[in-house]
Amino acid sequence: MRALVQRVTQASVVVDGQIVGQIGAGALILVCAMQGDTESSADRLADKIAKLRIFRDDQDKMNRSILESGGAALVVSQFTLAADTSRGNRPGFSAAAPPDDGRRLYLHFTAALAARGIATATGEFGADMAVNLTNDGPVTIWIDC
Fold first, then answer.
1. Which of 1, 21, 56, 85 keeps 20 to 30 A from 126, CA to CA?
2. Angle 39-51/99-115 helices, nearest 10 degrees?
3. What is the pTM of this model?
């Protein structure tokens, strides 16, 4: 699985004019299931993100995990993270998992984060979403698991 993790002071997702997910301080996680990913892949990604030390400690160093900082996670599905831009000007997305697998793994990943004690909100899989955020730092981390 692939994720782009952004440390945020706040983030929200709007679908059809309605907020469907929002958090205060924590992480906005854009996530994409790739061809061949499994529930085990989603669990590894959840473990990695839960332990990722990108939050400030008392000395203002990036030394705390999302759990240690008391932050929340807003998880948004984003198949475009699978973009292949190696040929031409139109990205290809064939490396992304098929929609049914993508939905299943997105939901599994979100549940895995919540099971690790992280307050978790979500966007809406497959919807046209407006994502609003205030990036903190900015801190943006790319993860392939």
1. 85
2. 40
3. 0.96
- Residue 127 near residue 82, CB atoms below 8 Å: no
Cα–Cα distances in angstroms (integers) from residue 136 to residues 55, 56, 143, in the given order? 10, 10, 18
78 given a catalytic annotation:
yes
Mean pLDDT in each 10-residue stretch from start to end of the chain (145 residues)?
98 98 98 98 98 97 97 97 95 96 98 98 96 97 95
Catalytic residue among 6, 9, 59, 79: 79
- Please state, in angstroms and rounded to a whole number, the distance separating the CA atoms of residues 28 and 78: 12
How far apart CA 103 and CA 109 sit, in angstroms, is 10
Write down the catalytic residue from 6, 78, 110, 122. 78
Among 35, 80, 134, 140, the active-site one is 80
Q: Does the annotation count 79 as an active-site position?
A: yes
